[in-house]
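Severity: low
Component: inverse-folding endpoint
Summary: output formatting inconsistent between runs
Steps to reproduce: submit the following structure tokens with default settings.
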């Protein structure tokens, strides 16, 4: 597993009782220090088996983190990825960190949509990974996502019959 080396406040564990029928808009900001190594992974939002994301609420905002070549990926990492693979860029891939930015256009990948639709198969983290080069500027990274447990709302098709 690509276990996050840094945990933001929303990545801290919840008890089983706190997880039951839990729904919130999780939003966390982490200050990435200048000199953070390439391939460093930040656990931004902690999730548990069965978690569903609201696809319309997932987004990332970042300040400039480097003068040149550094990119940022957003994905997920599982506590135990023997059966289910981590995907460090499953939501966003290669976002240019040489200037501040915002992105809400999640990648159209089957893996990401499966996680959103079917729920997380294991406990883990929504992660941000620094890529290509170390940061040379300190800056904030913010990830937000609507998170729920239990059955996600389903559209009724009764009126069609």
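Observed output (run 2 of 3):
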């Amino acid at each position: 597993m690509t276990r996050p080396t840094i945990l933001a406040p929303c990545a801290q564990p919840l008890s089983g009782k706190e997880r039951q029928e839990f729904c919130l808009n999780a939003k966390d900001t982490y200050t990435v220090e200048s000199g953070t190594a390439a391939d460093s992974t930040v656990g931004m939002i902690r999730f548990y088996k069965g978690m569903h994301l609201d696809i319309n609420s997932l987004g990332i905002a970042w300040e400039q983190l480097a003068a040149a070549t550094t990119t940022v990926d957003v994905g997920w990492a599982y506590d135990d990825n023997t059966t289910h693979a981590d995907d460090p860029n499953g939501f966003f891939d290669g976002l240019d960190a040489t200037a501040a930015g915002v992105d809400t256009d999640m990648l159209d990948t089957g893996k990401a949509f499966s996680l959103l639709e079917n729920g997380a198969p294991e406990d883990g983290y929504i992660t941000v990974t620094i890529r290509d080069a170390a940061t040379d500027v300190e800056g904030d990274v913010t990830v937000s996502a609507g998170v729920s447990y239990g059955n996600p709302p389903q559209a009724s098709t009764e009126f069609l019959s």
